[in-house]
């Protein structure tokens, strides 16, 4: 069973996704990381993505599905996959589910729910490693990344309240209907993301466990 992980910005889904993947042996497909890795590969597909990004355009859904297809054919073979950062829109959801079906794979969604108020509070206080891009929540007290030792800074788009509100608005407009669709089809697990991190983890593992039993 593959997992599609949803969560408003600031929900901690990156952190929780890693925990869930480790617990159940899932391969993680992170959209941003996958695109960066494809560009770095220098492949024909990577060069197409690079040219699109450098021209200031969004990568098309068809190209994104090519990236997913390559991931499934390599790292995804023989493993369940956790999808983080995709689908963001109804069109992406339709294409992703069709692709998974063509590979005889099934998917269930997990949504880490937080309010917009909590999202704004967390986003304005979190920091990111300049080098490896690891995200650190507000309560982390150090100035260096625990993964690579890089400096921690506030992301430029997290220091701008208008930018944050626009991202949250886009989530409500584009991604919330996708989540609702999974809920209506009884293919969604909801987790309270406003709890302490260990409690979010406990609830997530408890609710998702039956999918892998």
Alpha-beta classification: alpha/beta
- Stretches where pLDDT falls below 50 for ≥5 residues? none
Architecture (CATH level 2) name = 3-Layer(aba) Sandwich
Number of helices: 8
State the CATH class.
Alpha Beta
Number of domains: 1
Which short descriptors sum up this protein?
213 residues, alpha/beta, Rossmann fold
Notes on the protein architecture:
The mean pLDDT is about 90. Strand 5 and strand 6 (about 135) form a beta hairpin. Helix content is about 50%, strand content about 15%. The chain has a single domain (about 1-115, about 175-210), classed as 3-Layer(aba) Sandwich (Rossmann fold). The longest helix has 24 residues, at about 160-185. The strands form two sheets. A five-stranded parallel β-sheet has the order 2-3-1-4-8, sandwiched between helices. The protein has a three-stranded antiparallel β-sheet with strand order 6-5-7, with no helix packed on it. The protein has about 210 residues and is α/β, with parallel strands linked by helices.
